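Request:
Um, any thoughts?
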Amino acid sequence: MYDIKALYEAENVPHAIQLLQEHPEAQIIAGGSDVLVQMREGKRAGKELVSIYMIDDLRGVSYEEDGAIRIGSLTSFSHITRDPIIQKHINVLGEAVDMVGGPQIRNIGTIGGNTCNGVTSADSASTLHAWDAIVELTGPNGIRRIPIKDFYIKAGKVDLQPAELQTAIIIPKAAYEGYQGHYIKYAMRNAMDIATTGCSVNVKLSADKKIFEDVRIAYGVAGPVPMRAPSAEAKAKGKAVSSATVKEFAQAVLDDIHPRDSWRAAKDFRQHIAVVLAERALKESIRLAGGEIDG
């Protein structure tokens, strides 16, 4: 059923790096919800695999010393959704990954696998972009941390160097403190479907809830990689929380996104949906932040 040349089981992160150095053509497997399907389809036939699934140090959600939230790359979607730190500070991420596949996939699938797969439709990807996430990578030369926007290079390709693996995703305290967010996935079916478009919005309102101190919006399937919409963000920052601002914000996403025609949806339909989702997600984020829309 699965054409595997060899499978190596890593005991810890240094061991995983050693195995990747000894077998430079080997590919990493975590939960296997993507890799095993691709092998069955013949796309990775005859490959060597390095399994990191038993490295428990890569699981769980915790605070770093500076208050940043650390999500181990082997943390399953189900655990992220139920984690009290996630629920308290970035509940929208738990809601987003709760839309991945069915319960079996969410129990085995990992946040690291979802991002390292490099696909623009990953439900976690746009939300992590909206939270200014940092990707932690560990390899022979030590640890490096890069913004998630720089981690995605092109469709299906991420910035993983030889013998390197993703060990965590970091949400800086400044990126989540005082923010509320909402994610909307548009798909042809309500369950177990790849997103036609995904939109994640975060807002930080002024103390009186009348002004947008900050707004961040990110999309999946609006281009070859997950992306922010800086033109839209600029239209809202510092502006009054009003219907006019919301409308202007939503229309401005068209200046940044680059959807394509595919069998799932036409480009112009994706553009229309992107505007609708931006408006809806922003309105819900305002509500969650305790604000009301004037005008």
Q: What stands out?
A: Residues 4-51 form a domain with the Uridine Diphospho-n-acetylenolpyruvylglucosamine Reductase; domain 2 fold (CATH 3.30.43.10). The radius of gyration is 19 Å. Residues 267-288 form the longest helix (22 residues). The longest strand covers residues 197-205.
